[in-house]
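Input sequence (275 aa), recorded before submission:
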Amino acid sequence: MRETIKYLHVGAIGTVREVHAWVSSTRWNSGLLKRPTDTPPVPAGLNWDLWLGPRAYRPYHPAYCPFTWRDFWEFGGSAIGDFACHDLDAAVWAFDLQTPSRVEALAAGPVDDELGPFGAVIHYDFPARGKHPALNVIWHQGGLRPRTPAVLGKFPLPRRGVLFVGDKGVIQCDGAGGAPRLFPETLRAPGLKPAPTMARSKGHHRDWIDACKGGPAASSHFEYGARLTEIALLGVLALRTQRIVEWDPVSSQVKRLPQAEPIIRGSYRKGWNLV
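Predicted structure, token format:
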């Protein structure tokens, strides 16, 4: 990921105005079209009340756990809530992305108050800021993916990946921080590779321990992680409401969209209240 960011910083593919990220993940409960109504027994060893935590009580069902809770808005954020922190990381880091001016989500398949869709395309518009021009970041999930740029030739887009589109070429990476592939191939000449000036990580655990002991901040410290998470959750909000989201980060409200307020604030069962 650091190598990708360095290429972007030195302008290896020119000015970037478009970024795509995509995952093949769809609804994990592929045959489920509504909230389960049957009430099977709770498995031995599972504290269902504790598993529910702050969420309103509902009967146990294997559609919820241990992994497939991601399908349900009460517990998860669909595929973007699962993967955006990995696959939007390089774009947010490279271009110091802050608050998008506009987020619009297009669902593929049904989406309601309970369940996320089978797929989606989510558009983020980031305004120009400082040396960075306006940037359109497009998230694809459920097997949807961007059109393959002609410059890639016969190289196939992977099932999961990231694409930076510049006016001189493109960078394609596999998901979760895969190594950069530059197109056209003439951009890969040895003399064009930038020097590795960014400090390398010693690993998640070492970063964490060093920061706890008063050393440098971890690579993905809380301030950065919160910003990346907020960007991802604005996509979730647009997908849940099926409305255009214009976010005011100061008031933590969506402009002209009062129905988003209960989703943003959430609700908490007695005994789990925020204090």
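Checked by second reader. The two ends are 38 Å apart (CA to CA).
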